[in-house]
Amino acid sequence: LQTSQHVLFERSEMKDRHLVRKKIKEHIADKAKLPILIFPEGTCINNTSVMMFKKGSFELGGTIHPVAIKYDPRFGDAFWNSTKHSMMTYVFNMLTSWAVVCNVWYLPPMVKEEEEDAVHFANRVKAVIAARGGMSVLPWDGGLKRKKVKESFKEEQQRKYCQIV
C-alpha cells in the first residue's frame, strides 16, 4: 500500500473525509500523477445491478474515466455473499474455481456539466456503466445488505407503485 500511494480512510470519521478530499484534489491537480481508481459503490453486488454511487468521488472535479466490469459466472462466481459464506469459504471457492473471467469495458471519459450537481453526475455515470454491462440501475446503496430498509424509502416505493396502479 505504501508503494502505490493508496489513500486510506475511515468513512465514519469526518476528519478523515476532509483529509481524503484534500489529498484527492491535490492528486487530480498534479497532471504528472496517474489517475485514481475509485469504486464509488463502496461494496460489491451480485453482478446483476449497479448500486447507488457515493457522491464524494463526483464532487471533486476532474475527469471521470468510467469502467464497466462484469464477471462471467460460467467458470466460477466471484461474488462473495458475506451473509452466507465466511471469508475462508469464499477464498477457498475462488482458489478452486476453474477461472475468474470478467469482461471489462473502458468507457469514454466524462466530466460534470455546469448545471449538474454531484448526485446527478454520479447517476449519469452509473447509468452509462450499467447500460454497457447489461445491468440494472438500483437507487439504493450496499447498506441494505446489512441494515434494515428505511421507512422513508419504503414509503417512496409504495407511492411510486400506487401511481403505476
From TrEMBL:
This is GPAT3 acyltransferase. GO terms for molecular function: glycerol-3-phosphate O-acyltransferase activity. Belongs to the 1-acyl-sn-glycerol-3-phosphate acyltransferase family. CDD domains: LPLAT_LPCAT1-like. Pathway: Phospholipid metabolism; CDP-diacylglycerol biosynthesis; CDP-diacylglycerol from sn-glycerol 3-phosphate: step 1/3; Lipid metabolism; Glycerolipid metabolism; triacylglycerol biosynthesis. It is a multi-pass membrane protein. InterPro entries: LPCAT1-like, Plipid/glycerol_acylTrfase. Keywords: Acyltransferase, Endoplasmic reticulum, Lipid biosynthesis, Lipid metabolism, Membrane, Phospholipid biosynthesis, Phospholipid metabolism, Transferase, Transmembrane, Transmembrane helix. The keyword Ribosomal protein does not apply. The keyword Mitochondrion does not apply. Residues 3-70 form the Phospholipid/glycerol acyltransferase domain. It is found in: Endoplasmic reticulum membrane. It comes from the Eukaryota. GO terms for cellular component: endoplasmic reticulum membrane. One of its GO terms (biological process) is phospholipid biosynthetic process.
